[in-house]
Amino acid sequence: MAKAPVLTPQAEDFPRWYQDLINKAELADNGPVRGTMVIRPYGYGLWERMQQEMDARIKDAGAQNAYFPLFIPQSYLTREAEHVEGFAPELAVVTHGGGKELEEPVVVRPTSETIINDYFSKWVQSYRDLPLLINQWANVVRWEMRPRVFLRTSEFLWQEGHTAHATYEDARDYAAHIHRNVYGDFMTNVLGIDVVLGRKTPKERFAGAINTLTLEGMMGDGKALQMGTSHELGTNFAKAFNTSYLSKEGQQELVWQTSWGVSTRMVGGLIMSHGDDNGLRVPPRLAHVQVVVMAIKGDEAVAKVREIGARLKAAGLRVHVDDRVDTPFGRRAVDWELKGVPVRIEIGPRDLENGTAMLARRIPGGKEPVQIDALADLLPKVLDEDQAQLLRESRERRISRTSDVATIEEAAEAALAGGWARIPWSVLGPEGEAKLGEQAVTVRCLVAEDGSVPEADDAPGTLAIVARSY
Amino acid sequence: MAKAPVLTPQAEDFPRWYQDLINKAELADNGPVRGTMVIRPYGYGLWERMQQEMDARIKDAGAQNAYFPLFIPQSYLTREAEHVEGFAPELAVVTHGGGKELEEPVVVRPTSETIINDYFSKWVQSYRDLPLLINQWANVVRWEMRPRVFLRTSEFLWQEGHTAHATYEDARDYAAHIHRNVYGDFMTNVLGIDVVLGRKTPKERFAGAINTLTLEGMMGDGKALQMGTSHELGTNFAKAFNTSYLSKEGQQELVWQTSWGVSTRMVGGLIMSHGDDNGLRVPPRLAHVQVVVMAIKGDEAVAKVREIGARLKAAGLRVHVDDRVDTPFGRRAVDWELKGVPVRIEIGPRDLENGTAMLARRIPGGKEPVQIDALADLLPKVLDEDQAQLLRESRERRISRTSDVATIEEAAEAALAGGWARIPWSVLGPEGEAKLGEQAVTVRCLVAEDGSVPEADDAPGTLAIVARSY
């Protein structure tokens, strides 16, 4: 099938390609209030699947869902000094409610550490109440000066986990467990993105944290995207809100806390990791539509695709039946390609005679005829191959576009050329980090030589990964 | 087991009983900003199950989920005259964002008809784009002067469906389908509440609707709770936002619309329908914890309840294992009773020898010894019985506390005595409705004599159901 280019090619203008894809694949629109977004059904379907997969992993990690209010008294934000400094410039403030000016303005939550600690301080009394492991799915608002759909929006959807522990070690281990076994597992094995797990430098830490763990993905243009973070909060918020417990030994002790979040930003990461000049490519384990069964034309084909669709659904696949034969087939095929559905099964009048269909694969590309009766067995294998291919491509890109360098100048050069640089942190240091910052290059994270997460910034052999970022 | 009364008895003070239950069963707390609430994990678990069941039914009805922004430009609200009049007194207004005063203040959505129509007017071009069936799960804000947890809160969680259709009939039928087959089915068969389906009088309609369908439940004190509504919007919003389409015949036509919602208010309805002086009683089909397997004391009992818990989970039951033997058994049993878990399986040292357990049933009450090996077969039957009992009790209450009356005075008397009255709408009429309103008695809905929903307010034989309400 010959195609007119529906998207600006990536190589020509990557940001424009990204915006084109979001529009044409009907993922999202800009909202009427600057920086907000409307997530359209196909885009929201991606987010729903992310929620499902993540929620199951969060529950496996022992956390329970709850819901805290959108509105936080302004005074709460100021209790933790670094926290308020970090968030003050981004706040949305409600000054009027119910037709009157409020006595105390309230802020729309930019994150919920403060309000949650207000309740933790009531709920936690004894060591028996610990660990307290809470998660919430919510919208948050951070006023955004340079918005970009999914990546930086004034309102976004996320989950935020908040936990309280009896000891430093328990909190540290839990933050690490979320980082690796919840977020890392999901991003690698469901999103198919070969994320790097590391720790943030002090400069890049969350406002109020003693340690921030991050997952960084390399996008199609070689820039980095922070895909999620897990923070050790130490006792900073516990002190500010007096969140303490009576220990087994009868002492009143502050709790040690963590918080961790991933957001609709992951949808942006998915697009920029796996998209190509024909549109999105959705990893099969994530896809809410893994297979679209398309009638090319004719009533018999329509009846057949409905039948095949029902059969494949019963076999456990996530299937959409496209029987809109009053819309030209070519236009529909381009649309499913834009939307990145891994597999299309196309049925036309000739296929009905032969018991065959065309199998079109979005991820490796190409088409081949297949026996309809073989589909239920064949498709799970095809989808497994496709899932593996996306992760492999992501890994290959990261490896081929990461260079080991010895100087700050080389690091900057590699990053500005559209790749990542690895440089010893002992060479770079906070001063070098500041210098890179002048060229809009940042330290994405610190990693150990063996790829593990260093226990401290100054652990021997620690490497900094340096890149431009979203 | 002798119990001290943990809750204010219902007969003594129903509102205090309600608040006691919410506190002691750890369902929710009041938020720091007036009228807001913190939904605690056990309460949120109820809401999550409501969402799951409702979401599946909404998807079966063909609607797709999407997400629209929290912030709406203030000017949008004013485009539909009745709508703004209805909501203006309840709005929360953001005047500052990102450290600056905004050029145009934005309101926090009280509902999303206006912003959604802004997008529908872009997305809908041709008859091929119809029907457009969208749902969103979101938080909304309506500033509340007399807040009560779950029932009237300044922020609440809900789903709001919004649809656009080519004809009046198609919109009318879809609103009715949601009313009966989505909401009615869920409330009757999952929540176990014998809701009455009817239409609102013009006075009680949603601001901007041409018809509002409602589901009204009778609470334990005989008052009514509006559990959900489905609206026909006619072309009111379509006119205000110019949401139109090119018909098959080549004419530009306005769309016909519906909107419909249920909220965390249903949690309040659940409590007030099924709760008793010992706490909540959760219908098994809803319950996120259907069975709690409790170790009374001792390590062997702990090992045993874990084993039984795993076995019952594998059998498809929603099970919680309570192995906190360092907390007194009696206190834990009272707690599960407060939380309304339908079935407790209690295992003590003696049971281990005999291969038996105590089966304690929250809904009919009572305890009996059972063979542990029989549990996986027995429990689904027990839970089915319990589900049926709650619906039966709800139906019996509604029937026994509803009286047919012939005059406005009798209607007011029946309602003020804690019941519902049924009176011909031809006798009551808008004037009688206004008169009842002076005594805080309202027309909950209009129904036909055979219990169906009248096609019009003035359909012959239409009855008004009159009650005090939440």
Return the CATH topology of the largest domain in chain A: BirA Bifunctional Protein, domain 2
Helix/strand/pairing category of chain A: alpha+beta
State the CATH architecture of the largest domain in chain A.
2-Layer Sandwich
| Assembly state (oligomeric) | homodimer
What characteristic shape of chain A results from the CA principal axes? globular
User: Which spans of chain A of ≥5 residues are poorly predicted at pLDDT below 50?
Assistant: none
What is the average per-residue confidence, as pLDDT of chain A, rounded to a whole number? Answer: 96
What is the H level of CATH, i.e. the homologous superfamily of the largest domain in chain A?
Answer: Bira Bifunctional Protein, Domain 2
Most extensive interface: pair and counts? A-B, 57 and 57 residues
Largest sheet features of chain A: 7 strands, mixed
CATH class of the largest domain in chain A: Alpha Beta
Helix content of chain A: 25-40%
Number of E-type strands of chain A: 23
* Structural domain count of chain A: 3
Could you tell me the radius of gyration of chain A in angstroms? 25 Å
Distance between the termini of chain A: 35 Å
Q: Record the strand order, biggest sheet of chain A.
A: 3-7-8-14-11-10-9
EC number (chains A, B): 6.1.1.15
Main location (chains A, B): cytoplasm
Organism (chains A, B): Streptomyces racemochromogenes
Subunit structure (chains A, B): Homodimer.
